[in-house]
């Protein structure tokens, strides 16, 4: 079985080797290939940090061209397909508007010439003057109608495109699984894809969007139309040469080597070291601002530590500016001075024209305003082109991210339908091993055990021995690297995770505390029953959380305050957290248990997993919860109905289970019933004796 996502990783090597061997970038076809290749740092094995500006090199220009060919047009088509007619109108209006300034200049020149002529001849033709002024006013009125229609139409088209982008971004976030997010390369891809989405929606920096391409086109048309006007009043080629010189000076700084220009980009980290420092700077800022950290910041006197760390990280990020060589500074300053000089000599043709006896006031004013428009628009064109160049690669990241397949998803042809077996789920693990990405030591090592349908397994052991990791692997939240895991007689990897999850309920160790009502916090356990007050109340009662509901001001409808939620303050809007009601850790635990029970009462649930569900509860409450778990695992006649796995440090509770797995250093060192393990007199027996 070949997962396309796994196949992306060697692509880094294959892409760079293609480029190193001097082979053509044209061979890179997929959005992912192009995106990855654009991140290669010249002369280094490192990749550019996510979000870094791509240098304007020939290789990157070819990659951008490839990306436009393969992805950008498809993306534009998708985004604007909601309003095809309005999109055509938007394009037409944009192009028409780009011709308007030239017309305006021409029309005004006609009026000036007419006034000059009438003044010099001293015969005033009022009807003609009024006609010219009237047509100018009508033209302006039509212009404003076209403008307001274009803005209104563009708003509708862009709102739809923004909705699609934001929706797809959310869709992608909820669709992808945990292992995909832990893959560093995938994280970078998603980060750049988010940058595109944010800037497209107008919530981020700048305005990278497919509209930049349209902007480039309309700026070009505007420049060409002004050049046409300039040529019509220009008398010699000298004027044109001087004008071309001025234009070159506008574009010159853009094609300078990145190494010179990047020295001035002090706020966009470029090297991995700067990126690391920028990260640290953000973490320190977060510690200073976050309400969650405030008590410990005060208690442990972290104020100075935060400030000095932030300051040193800030200096590292800005180091490149300090380390700038004097020759680089003088070179950059020289370029700017030269640029200004070239821009200044754009006045030479104007002076030449002024001296020419045939020049009219209208042509002079037309010439001057057109020259200004050409220079101004050329600068805008240069900036927009640079932005569009970068956005091509962010769009490639976006396109690649929409094609990402969750890592745990099996190939369609390999998929096996999940079938329930009598009594619950049967599990057979053979030599399972798993190492977290970026870690040297495996969290699971050769884990083997068999659990029959309907049995209860308690996983016990020391901190860090791999209990929670094993639970996440069994729940198909995390993957494993080696070994075999059979569930109901089939390889777990062949089940569609979403189908498999429909048969499980769990309380994870780091369960979620949603910044939402208590009702929703419980109801998410079974969304289809979210509207049923009876089912929610039943789950709350089973988890003995009814006492909490009674103390809350709005009962089930009380919004709970979640420490993970950082409210965004909008103007005129009360921050959401201030509406929340805080709960103790034990109370939150009961809510999480109620959520799991809400799901567990569904008939299709075959496996219940609880990772230290009662660690914050008192002894009586713990016993009551485990009584309920036991009840849920049986039919009313006492026959086994569901398999239960729970992780606990309370060995008095663990002894209730049919089987106990003692975990040490990532592996199951002892497996059997409580009595069998006591008789073995091994690690479990020692731990048990210590606990009583
Ligand atoms: N997301 C992660 N990334 C990297 N390493 C991790 C991650 N989660 C856990 N580990 C490491 O894996 C090992 C097993 O962790 P695990 O959480 O499974 O232990 P545990 O037995 O449940 O511990 P505890 O009893 O403290 O809850 C530990 O060494 C831990 O540091």
From TrEMBL:
PANTHER family cross-referenced by the UniProt entry: ATP-BINDING CASSETTE SUB-FAMILY B, ATP-BINDING CASSETTE SUB-FAMILY B MEMBER 6
Family statement drawn from the similarity comment of this UniProt entry: Belongs to the ABC transporter superfamily. ABCB family. Heavy Metal importer (TC 3.A.1.210) subfamily.
Domain ABC transporter: 427-690
Organism (species): Lentinula detonsa
This protein's name: P-loop containing nucleoside triphosphate hydrolase protein
Keywords, alphabetical: ATP-binding, Hydrolase, Membrane, Nucleotide-binding, Transmembrane, Transmembrane helix
InterPro entries per UniProt: AAA+_ATPase, ABC_transporter-like_ATP-bd, P-loop_NTPase, Type_1_exporter
Residues passing through the membrane, by range: 213-233, 240-261
GO molecular function, one term: ATPase-coupled lipid transmembrane transporter activity
Pfam families, per the entry: ABC_tran
Top-level taxon of the source organism: Eukaryota
